[in-house]
Design brief:
The complex is a heterodimer of chains A (288) and B (302). Chain A is 73% helix and 1% strand. The longest helix of chain A has 37 residues. A two-stranded antiparallel sheet of chain A has the order 1-2. By secondary structure, chain A is mainly alpha-helical. By secondary structure, chain B is mainly alpha-helical. Chain B has one domain: Orthogonal Bundle (MetI-like fold). A two-stranded antiparallel ribbon of chain B has the order 1-2. In chain B, helix 5 packs across helix 7, helix 7 packs antiparallel against helix 10 and helix 10 runs antiparallel to helix 13. Chain B is globular and about 70 Å long. The chains are: A mainly alpha (288), B mainly alpha (302). At the A-B interface, helix 1, helix 3, helix 4, helix 5 and helix 6 of A face helix 1, helix 2, helix 4, helix 5 and helix 6 of B.
Chain lengths: 288, 302
């Protein structure tokens, strides 16, 4: 009998295969836990209130990372300002207005391309357009605008998915009692899809907050003795600061590096966890 | 009767609809702007610098040598190395999560993969410098741990979440009836996975691989920090344990210091344009493959 159809042999194959895949997946994923634990252990002793609230001193080899934390905050807020309104509007267009035709297909291809463009190319674009052509200089404004374009496809696609998930009957009922299309969107569709939209926004901003390459030449400063005074000033930022202290500063104390990694990871991962919590709570509460 | 207030609302409605319709095309606008701008800044490089100098093996911008071949091969080396790690591990993990894992394991594995996706690339680079590269240097007795191998391992690992989540989605959309039919014929689950589920999810899996590879090519900070940044030509299989330099790292490390409009500036934009075209090609093909799948599933849903 052909061994392929010999069931005892096939069962044995299955057992070995399952065991191998279990081991392999565990090995793929286990280092993530190991790394997180390692960073927390190495970084936690450094992360004190002084570390979070002081300026770097002694050529960044001592002191804290306060300006980098605040800078990342500024950039994240700037990115939110520029990416959320057009992102949601584009998502509404794609889910509520766009006909199924060639033009819409072009929009979708463009979105996928926008999501796939290397982050350093965004940096080039930001440098050319915002820093030089529009003369914003290396500034929070230029860096936020660059990050916003990068964040747009994430916000658009997750928001569109959330809006599409609202049952069609909700819209039909609203229209049938005399509401206009926009009233329906504003009063029925958007409130119902809000948790999904917020999840998408946080995930997009989380990605922006951790990026270094797009802000390298559009707004990140190596070191600043004082806080940025206006959106037209450059700023320090956590990811760029980590890059600087791990490659550009000789004799950098390793504890400060681990402390900075821990703060950056804490910032980024807490946003991710927040997004996950909002999503799962909304799913649990959903009545449709 | 109620026509008057209705009219004022319609005026607002008209404006808002116009805004929404305009915003719909914002992605197209930006892709066009980015491509036009890259072309505008890169084309002078083609005119000013002779082709045999551009497609040369020496990258020494200080002496006016702009041979981009070592950068192209550097990116290629890293992409192949990382793909060899990411594709098998990513696909097998996706198969495990979607087909084999008991629910509680799934609940642990999926968030962990998402966390990996959320780790900033500069953090991976940092870990590469401090943990992985000393380890590789001692294990293989190398003069430096900052090599193509270090970059490939980190990038391969960083690309795993993309491959896992896209191919897991693809596996999940395979109708349960396919698997049930196979099991009913007496196949084991193992045979069903490789004989039915994976082949049915083929187009999604190919998309996953392409998006993963696209992510590797475009990755910047990690490679800049851990690959040693030496613009050298590949030297057989040994290349993997030598320092190299990618296109992305070149732009990131040199753009800060060049004068606007100089030859060097334009060549860096040319490299950016090449990267842009790579990602364009990869994503358009991935879109074509996956949209066929979407059409099929949309028919099923409607």
């Amino acid at each position: 009998m052909d061994s392929k159809f010999d069931s005892s042999n096939a069962r044995k194959h299955e057992k070995i295969g399952f065991a191998a895949l279990t081991a392999l997946s565990t090995l793929t994923v286990l280092p993530i836990i190991a790394i997180l634990i390692y960073i927390v252990i190495q970084g936690l002793p450094t992360v004190t209130w002084e570390f979070l609230s002081q300026f770097p001193s002694d050529g960044m080899r001592a002191g804290g990372i306060y300006p980098a934390i605040v800078g990342t905050f500024y950039l994240t807020i700037g990115t939110a300002l520029f990416s959320i309104p057009p992102g949601i509007a584009a998502a509404i267009y794609l889910s509520e207005y766009a006909p199924d035709n060639r033009l819409t297909r072009i929009i979708r291809i463009a979105m996928i391309n926008l999501a796939g463009i290397p982050s350093v190319v965004y940096g080039l674009f930001g440098l050319g357009v915002f820093v030089i052509f529009l003369q914003f200089g290396t500034s929070i404004l230029a860096a936020s605008l660059t990050l916003s374009i990068m964040t747009l496809p994430v916000i658009i696609s997750t928001s569109e998915e959330a809006i599409r998930a609202v049952p069609q009957s909700f819209r039909l009922i609203s229209i049938s009692v005399g509401a206009t299309k926009w009233e329906t969107i504003r009063k029925i569709v958007l409130p119902q899809s809000l948790p999904g939209i917020i999840t998408g926004i946080i995930l997009g901003l989380q990605r922006a907050a951790g990026e270094t390459a797009p802000i390298l030449f559009t707004g990140a400063a190596f070191f600043l003795p004082q806080m940025p005074q206006s959106p037209l000033d450059a700023t320090m930022a956590l990811p760029y600061h980590l890059y600087v202290i791990s490659t550009q500063v000789p004799g950098m104390p390793i504890q400060i590096q681990y402390g900075t990694v821990l703060v950056l990871l804490g910032f980024v991962l807490s946003m991710e966890i927040l997004a996950t919590v909002i999503r799962s709570r909304a799913r649990a509460r959903r009545k449709w | 009767m109620a026509s008057k207030p209705r009219n004022s609302i319609n005026y607002g409605e008209f404006t808002i609809t116009l805004l929404i319709r305009t915003a719909g095309y914002i992605s197209v606008l930006f892709v066009l702007l980015i491509s036009l701008f890259l072309i505008r800044e890169a084309v002078p490089a083609f005119i000013k610098i002779p082709a045999d100098s551009l497609f040369n093996t020496r990258w020494y911008p200080i002496e006016g040598m702009y041979g981009i071949l070592p950068l192209l091969t550097g990116s290629l080396t890293i992409t192949i190395g990382a793909s060899l790690i990411a594709i098998p591990l990513g696909l097998l993990t996706a198969v495990y999560i979607s087909e084999i894992a008991p629910p509680w394991t799934k609940e642990i594995l999926k968030p962990l993969v998402e966390i990996l996706a959320g780790i900033p690339s500069v953090v991976l680079g940092f870990l590469g410098i401090l943990v992985l590269s000393p380890f590789l240097r001692e294990t293989f007795n190398l003069p430096t741990g900052l090599t193509a191998l270090t970059g490939s391992i980190l990038l391969g690992w960083a690309a795993i979440p993309t491959i896992v989540s896209v191919s897991e989605d693809a596996l999940n959309t395979v109708p349960a009836s396919y698997r049930e039919a196979s099991l009913a014929l007496g196949c084991t689950r193992w045979q069903t996975i490789w004989g039915v589920a994976v082949p049915s999810a083929r187009s999604g899996i190919i998309t996953a691989i392409m998006l993963g590879v696209g992510r590797v090519i475009g990755e910047t900070m990690t490679v800049m920090m851990v690959t040693g940044n030496a613009p050298t030509m590949p030297d057989g299989l040994r290349t993997i344990i030598l320092p190299i330099r990618t296109m992305t790292a070149t732009i990131a490390s040199e753009m800060g210091e060049v004068a606007n409009g100089s030859d060097h500036y334009q060549v860096l934009f040319l490299i950016g344009l090449i990267l842009f075209i790579f990602s364009l090609v990869i994503n358009v093909i991935a879109f074509q493959i996956s949209s066929r799948r979407i059409k099929r599933s949309e028919r099923l849903l409607s």
